[in-house]
Amino acid sequence: MVVFCRGREGPRVFRTLCGWAAMALFLSTYTNKVDKKGRVSVPASFRAALAEQLVQGIVVFCSHQHDCLEGFDWAKMDEIGDRLDHYDLFSDDQDDLATTVFGESVQLFFDGEGRVVLPADLMEAAGIGESATFVGLGRKFQIWSPDRFEERKNRARAAVRDKGLTVPKGGEGRS
Amino acid sequence: MVVFCRGREGPRVFRTLCGWAAMALFLSTYTNKVDKKGRVSVPASFRAALAEQLVQGIVVFCSHQHDCLEGFDWAKMDEIGDRLDHYDLFSDDQDDLATTVFGESVQLFFDGEGRVVLPADLMEAAGIGESATFVGLGRKFQIWSPDRFEERKNRARAAVRDKGLTVPKGGEGRS
DNA sequence: TGGATATTTATGGGATAGCATGGGTTTATT
DNA sequence: AATAAACCCATGCTATCCCATAAATATCCA
Q1: A52 CB burial (10 A radius; 0-12, 13-18, 19+)
Q2: Could you give the dihedral angle defined by the CA atoms of residues A132, A138, A140 and A144, in that order, rounded to the nearest 10 degrees?
């Protein structure tokens, strides 16, 4: 990974800085290998979506709904920090939320090649072994064991079809 | 913004200068050993979050809701002072809070290796023995006995689920 | 347009620096 | 002088950096 902001940058770099950066959406799914050291390449398009936040890496924690990891960018995390800050400093709710949201998440930095190291405990929790599947979900993404994701995908697809789910208009549909 | 990832100092320096230092967020949990002298390494990422603080150290006091220690940086301590100011100046509540928060808090400085010495009475109050667990909670952090934190974590998780707690104001903390 | 050349991506492995940890020695404190 | 606190040095371990490769894309130029 190289982020050059000077010199004669080609169309690609430009697109990275302007085109994709504006969108900043995590799309499609990619399956990459996890080496002995626990390193995985974050899909290049995901990295592009992070654009200016590349240096801060990504924030990851264990999902409470699925057997997978949830990931998003640092800005999101910072925003959550601000919001929690508006609670009473020592309220129970604030504490409970902060403990689960912050206490259990990890900031992962990119190495020179655009990889991150998945902590062993998180890998285990998500059942990730030889390879990991990155699933783009717009503003966030998930990291799955390839097998488990296959099941998940089928179930999700079935649910959409059966219930006739659609994308809600405007605002934030549900939390 | 110029983002340079190459060169002698490498990403680490940049990360320290821009990434962490700019937005001090305490993340994840780390368990470190306490030696005979009462010294513990403060997690490196926590130290990085404090980086720009003039006073190189942390402020710690005994939590009055949990069996743990609460830790802050100096800036946060200032802010607590401000918040307490909004109480009636001579109210009992103000007095009580100020007494516990300020009267019982200790400032701990780092040694050359990034450790602090936990005062014996605080360790005892929090039930900390051989090792201590640092829990990042965004703008503040806590220090626990590893065992007790394990329970606490589960309880917090349950509370979030049962009460349906979410990050206030549209932030979809996780889901 | 098509083939040669350069980039980018994903991957692997060795070298190195940083972190957590332990122990000793000097410097305050009273 | 006695005790504790701060400082300095030494150590594994592991995370991080750096270099190298192959495959896939993109770019260039005749």
Answers
A1: middle
A2: -20
Helix A92-101 and helix A74-85, axial crossing angle in degrees, nearest 10: 170
For residue range B18-65, list pLDDT tens digits in order.
Answer: 333 345 789 999 999 999 999 999 999 999 988 777 677 899 999 989
Q: What digits encode the pLDDT tens for the residues A91-108?
A: 888 999 999 999 999 999
Contacts from B82-86 at CB under 8 Å and sequence distance 24+? B83/A89
Which superfamily does CATH assign the domain made up of A25-163 to?
Transcriptional regulator MraZ domain (3.40.1550.20)
Answer yes or no: is pLDDT of B136 > 90: yes
CA A28 – CA A141 distance, rounded (Å): 10
- Asked if B128 and B144 count as a contact pair (C-beta separation under 8 A), the reply is yes
Return all residues near A139 (Cβ < 8 A) that are at least 6 apart.
Answer: A24, A25, A26, A72, A76
Contact (Cβ atoms closer than 8 angstroms) between residue A32 and residue A131: yes
Q: How far apart are CA B46 and CA B56, in angstroms?
A: 12
What are φ and ψ of residue B85, in 5° steps?
-60, -25
Which two three-digit tokens encode residue B163? 């009460």
Domain boundaries, chain A: 25-163
Contact residues, A window 73-92, toward B, CB-based 8 Å cutoff: 74, 77-81, 83-87, 89-90, 92
> In terms of CA atoms, which chain B residue is nearest residue A72?
B174
Cross-chain residue pair B171–A80, CB shorter than 8 Å: yes
